Amino acid sequence: MQNIYYQQDCDLAKLNGKTVAVIGYGSQGHAHALNLKESGVNVIVGLYTGSKSWEKAERAGLTVMTAEDAARAADIIMILINDEKQAKLYTESIEPNLTAGKTLAFAHGFNIHFGCIRPPKDVNVIMIAPKGPGHTVRSEFLAGKGVPCLVAVEQDATGDALDLALAYALGIGGARAGVLETTFRTETETDLFGEQAVLCGGVCALMQAGFETLVEAGYDPRNAYFECIHEMKLIVDLIYQSGFEGMRYSVSNTAEYGDYVTGPKIITDETKKTMKKILADIQDGTFAKEFLLEMSDAGSQVHFNAMRRKAAEHPAETVGKEVRKLYSWSDEDKLINN
Question: What tens digit of pLDDT does each residue of 214-228 get?
Fold first, then answer.
């Protein structure tokens, strides 16, 4: 069994006298930087010149500099930009400023596991991967809670790489919930699989198919949205809190019975065979190769952008925008301003 650590197992003092550079100030970047700062860690933010986030980070009270300067000044360099951009950034701005004993950190193992980034042997390579979006990492921290994290050590040049990773996890609030020790390979492969087969690809496709089925049968699209999309959060929140058993305890007997008899008709043996093929493509690098090609200058993201446009034009999105206008909360908390 892999080790799991909590607050009492982590020592924030391991970061005393060290400077942490958070490269990127998006969803994860802003959460890591602000949480660490409020935990008493010396944090700087590294961005490219002209970044729209530069002023935003400064307004939050953070010191901002170019990624190159941040990498030069820092003892621990956490890379929190998109996977497809990390290798280029590393080569141009970080690698020339890595000296023996520094620590290179990631929140996802993609670039290390698939060999896109190959650090020198005299630096630590660690991962602290919150199991939730950055906005949740931030909101849970502010609420006095935390998002569980995975930690891994790929290279331990200084002999205390795990201690540094655990201190970082404590600084962003993850140790309040629990920190599971893993490997770069396991995190990368399970994360990609979970996103594709279940959390994003699987769930979105399931909700969309349910919406389409009801609408095609003549039901009001607003009813279809409420039943197949809106209520998903309510069910997932129950599972998050108390597992499948707790969710089934909370719903009606009718819903629970339908769960047992209908679930296996939707997720069949053929579905699991497809899942196994998806996992195999992740494990052997097929997906990574396809993704990086699509995101390269040669691929120009043509297919990716076409898929994004098509998804945005789905009737469920149109209906959803109208339905969400009925909700009582303000627009200030929305991630996308339509």
Answer: 999 999 999 999 999
